[in-house]
């Protein structure tokens, strides 16, 4: 069994590199390479096409990769490619994005991205679940014998405090009887990441990363050695 792939990049060299890497992998089948994003969109959205992976450049004429993601109807896995690592945070706001490759594309990172696609494909309903969770942007917490609604995108970070968790939002703070593990299962993985045994962060709120700490809204969050590789890999800042 193989996965059908499409490459969308207005630059010739990255397309050639991907063509070679895909050709070396027996589990992949390259359908077509597009330099024109509009033509690519027509092809991808055709009901007759069964596309498993879309390698999509971010900066292109007429459309950006982000524009294209919003218009793509196919449930394909999307691997974004760019020469600029600064788009990584925005990239993972989209549930369909499985990975983010920096140009020039290295074989080892390419294979790692394909492994991520396979892992998500082996989880039934993973794309559907991701799409649902990103839309369900409200969380209800039980505090002071009341149910209070929190907008998930407003959460900056969550800190474990004994048998309680401290939820820090843009405007309020909440102390809730719960565990990090429990609330982690309620948060979209496209925005939230464990960086310490006592902290989960909304990585869309990151202002800066310095050594073993993250700056979010003028607050320093520690990053443990155990979770730092996961953070760097998730943001493709290697």
Automatic annotation (TrEMBL):
Q: One Pfam family of this protein, by short name?
A: Response_reg
SMART domains the record matches = LytTR, REC
GO MF term (any one): DNA binding
State the InterPro entries in the record: CheY-like_superfamily, LytR-like, LytTR_DNA-bd_dom, Sig_transdc_resp-reg_receiver
Residue numbers of 4-aspartylphosphate PTMs:
57
Q: Which UniProt keywords apply?
A: DNA-binding, Phosphoprotein
Spans traversing the lipid bilayer: none
Domain named HTH LytTR-type: which ranges? 139-237
Q: Look up the signal peptide feature and give its range.
A: none
Q: In its UniProt entry, what is this protein called?
A: DNA-binding response regulator
């Amino acid at each position: 069994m193989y996965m059908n792939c499409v490459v969308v990049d207005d630059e010739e060299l990255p397309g050639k590199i991907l063509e070679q890497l895909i050709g070396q992998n027996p589990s992949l089948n390259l359908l077509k390479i597009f330099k024109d994003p509009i033509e690519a969109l027509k092809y991808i959205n055709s009901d007759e096409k069964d596309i498993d992976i879309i390698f999509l450049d971010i900066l292109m004429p007429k459309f950006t990769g982000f524009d294209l993601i919003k218009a793509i109807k196919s449930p394909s896995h999307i691997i974004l490619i760019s020469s600029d690592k600064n788009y990584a945070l925005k990239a993972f706001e989209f549930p369909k994005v499985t990975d983010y490759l920096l140009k020039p594309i290295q074989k080892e990172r390419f294979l790692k991205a394909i492994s991520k696609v396979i892992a998500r494909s082996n989880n039934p309903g993973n794309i559907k679940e991701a799409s649902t969770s990103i839309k369900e942007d409200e969380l209800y917490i039980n505090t002071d014998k009341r149910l209070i609604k929190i907008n998930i995108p407003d959460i900056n970070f969550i800190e474990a405090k004994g048998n309680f968790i401290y939820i820090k939002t843009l405007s309020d703070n909440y102390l809730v009887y719960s565990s990090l593990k429990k609330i982690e299962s309620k948060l979209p993985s496209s925005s939230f990441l464990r960086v310490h045994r006592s902290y989960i962060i909304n990585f869309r709120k990151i202002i800066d990363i310095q050594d073993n700490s993250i700056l979010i809204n003028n607050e320093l969050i520690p990053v443990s050695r155990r979770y730092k590789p996961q953070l760097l890999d998730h943001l493709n800042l290697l």
